[in-house]
Design brief:
This protein has about 200 residues and is mainly beta. The protein has one domain: Lipid/polyisoprenoid-binding, YceI-like (Lipocalin), CATH 2.40.128.110. Helix content is about 10%, strand content about 50%. It contains two helices and eleven strands, in the order αββββββαβββββ. It has helices spanning about 5-15, 85-90; strands at about 25-30, 35-40, 45-50, 55-60, 70-75, 80, 105-115, 120-125, 130-145, 150-165, 175-190. An eight-stranded antiparallel beta barrel has the order 1-4-5-7-8-9-10-11. A hairpin with a 4-residue loop joins strand 7 (about 105-115) and strand 8 (about 120-125). The longest helix is centred in the N-terminal third of the chain and has 13 residues, at about 5-15.
Amino acid sequence: MITRAGFGFVALLMAATPAIAAPDKYSFDPAHTQILFSVSHLGFSHSHGRFNTFGGSFTFDEKNPAASAIDVTVDTASVDMGSKEWDDAVRAEALLNAAKFPKMTFKSTAVAKTGEKTGTVTGDLTLLGVTKPVTLNVTYNKSGNHPYTKNHLAGFSASATLKRSDFGMSKYIPDVGDDVSITIEVEGIRQDFEGMNAK
């Protein structure tokens, strides 16, 4: 049985223990966030593309990166290869099948720090209805206040390589390569839950 003095000690201990702050939440700045990819075309070159429409958010804890997380949804029909012919071919049933699978998602399952400014983000990528683990190699660029908007930003660069055949997208291999290189540039705007401008 805890005495009155015991209750007082517990209350004092709780008051003296600092609360563990939740990681800051960020929304993507779409003007300064790019989801890019490249794939071999007949061995002559690597064709580059991007997805123009996406949504989601991420949390980031600079002192404890393992507590961070990311959740992204990409509109597959927003693929942009810089050519209408290419766009139509990639959106078609043989590849992205955007009519049947209008979204692909990436949800992190683990974040690990590998260096002072580097880390890995492992997560589940769902594409064409197939979910597979993918690991991104991430560089933390910087955090700070935007000189004009005064919003607080965090910026990252990430890369990965995946096999599209793992997701059932095997049409045209090897003429169009199986290995797809992913490059992601992210600027996130820290969200202010008090409704004031981020500082």
